[in-house]
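STRUCTURE:
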């Protein structure tokens, strides 16, 4: 039979434990722990103490160990409890993050919680929680502009200045491509989605050379 590690009490420690075990204002669980330690100090083994106090032997072993490690202070606070086992494994989480940052769903430009949940076989709430924990926002998209023109900044200031402060009695017109045409290609490769940064793509794209008459000139 396995013999539990003995407990030897100093006179002042025993006195405190006896007061604790008799205290009417002391929590019942703390009283029980004190009685366990006192019986252990008298030489009783864990199974004997468990039978006397009508508790499980593993509880007796737990508080015997806690007292040996932390003294009376260890009896005053509850033992740490294991957390709930995650319903989604780390492998599934890693795969979900990889799909979010490195791929797109069929017939869509980015993942939604619904499409990712269907793809991974998890709930939408789980997808949202994982994205939030990893700083991922697939619905967000930023644009940027890259130019090799050394006069780019000067030209930008001139155009913006024309809008903000046009000449007196001047009429400023803005001409762009047909709005119904979707820009599928970009002049520079975009940056993928990552933690703390949304997906990015260049502001400009190759023109389609398509023109359309203004609405006021159409018949």
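SEQUENCE:
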């Amino acid at each position: 039979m396995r013999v539990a590690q003995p407990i030897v009490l100093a006179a002042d420690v025993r006195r405190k434990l006896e007061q604790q075990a008799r205290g009417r204002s002391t929590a019942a669980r703390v009283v029980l722990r004190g009685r366990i330690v006192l019986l252990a100090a008298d030489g009783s083994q864990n199974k004997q103490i468990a039978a006397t106090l009508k508790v499980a032997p593993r509880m007796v072993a737990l508080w015997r160990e806690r007292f040996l490690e932390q003294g009376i202070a260890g009896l005053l606070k509850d033992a740490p409890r294991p957390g709930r086992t995650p319903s989604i494994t780390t492998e599934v989480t890693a795969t979900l993050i990889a799909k979010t940052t490195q791929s797109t769903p069929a017939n869509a430009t980015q993942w939604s919680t619904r499409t990712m949940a269907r793809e991974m076989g998890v709930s939408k709430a789980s997808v949202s929680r994982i994205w939030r924990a990893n700083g991922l926002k697939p619905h967000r998209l930023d644009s940027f502009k890259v130019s090799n023109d050394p006069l780019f900044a000067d030209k930008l200031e001139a155009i913006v200045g024309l809008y903000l402060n046009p000449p007196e009695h001047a009429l400023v017109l803005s001409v762009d491509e047909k709005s119904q045409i979707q820009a599928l290609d970009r002049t520079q490769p975009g940056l993928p989605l990552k933690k703390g940064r949304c997906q990015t793509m260049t502001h400009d794209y190759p023109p389609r050379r398509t023109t359309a008459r203004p609405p006021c000139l159409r018949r």
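REMARK: DSSP finds eight helices and two strands in the chain.
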